[in-house]
Amino acid sequence: MLSLLLVVVVLGTNANAIQAQTQDDDFWRQNGTVPEPIECGSLPISTTPLNVGDTVTITSAELCDYYGILLEPSSEGGFDVGWMQQGHWVSFDMALSTAGLFNMTIRTASKTGEGAFDLVNQGTSEVYKVFSGVANTQGWQNWETMDAGLVALRKGSTTLRVNSLQSGWNLLSMNFTLVEAFVTYDYMVFAKNFDRGHVGVELAESSEGTLNLDYIFSGDELFFNLTLPQSGKYEIYARVSNPEDVGSFAITHRQTGQVFGIILTLPTTSSWEEWTTVLVGEAYFDAETHNMEIFVLQGGFNLEFLGLNFIDSATGDSEDNHYLVPAKDYTNTNGVEVDPNNGNIGSLDPGDWIEYTLNVVSSGIYILQFYIASPEGWGSFQVVNPQTQEVYGTFDSLPTTESWFSWVSVDIPNVSLSQGRVPIKLEITKGGFNFFVIAFELASDYAEEV
Ligand SMILES: *[C@@H]1O[C@H](CO)[C@@H](O)[C@H](O)[C@H]1NC(C)=O
Ligand SMILES: *[C@@H]1O[C@H](CO)[C@@H](O)[C@H](O)[C@H]1NC(C)=O
Ligand SMILES: *[C@@H]1O[C@H](CO)[C@@H](O)[C@H](O)[C@H]1NC(C)=O
Ligand SMILES: *[C@@H]1O[C@H](CO)[C@@H](O)[C@H](O)[C@H]1NC(C)=O
Ligand SMILES: *[C@@H]1O[C@H](CO)[C@@H](O)[C@H](O)[C@H]1NC(C)=O
Question: Is the pLDDT of residue 257 over 70?
Answer without folding.
Answer: yes
